[in-house]
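User: what does the whole thing look like in 3D?
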Amino acid sequence: MAANILVLNGPNLNLLGLREPEIYGVDTLGDVEARCATKGKALGLTIDFRQSNHEGELVTWLQEARTGADGVILNAAGYTHTSVAIRDAVLACEKPVIEVHLSNPYSREDFRHHSFISDVAAGVICGFAGKGYELALEAIADICGRSGN
Ligand code: CA2
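Assistant: Here's the predicted 3D structure for the full assembly of 149 residues, as structure tokens:
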């Protein structure tokens, strides 16, 4: 059966493509969703793509992944650097979570160098703009295949 992958996007990512293309690339969030849909189809994955500006909503969706998804791709955006609640929800979902960032936080301000998610994620992909989501889907397809999902 096709693995169900939840792709979660955090605050302000709805503005993608409208500002700061030199940092985040030229794709809109709709373009990234379309890339994920195409890649997911090629990999035999079912993709559920969501964005929220609210920490609690992201936590609720991660909790839902416990029973509703086989793996998660997570760009928690600014909450990456602040949210113990999202870290706890990543742990609680007990599914492989791949952390993705469009930009490379390590080449930016110091406060972006710490992630509350990286050490509890299955892996981290950053710095490749929208392409990073496709790379993350390839990785999660491997992980889900390996665990027999
Ligand atoms: O590079 C990423 O994907 C980030 O997760 C994006 C976050 C940032 O806080 C992280 O350090 C790295 C910011 C998302 C804001 O997205 C915007 C997109 C276009 C215009 C304005 C904001």
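In plain terms: Residues 131-146 form the longest helix (16 residues). Residues 12-13, 15-16, 18-20, 24, 75, 77-78, 80, 101-103, 105, 112 surround CA2 (CB under 6 Å).
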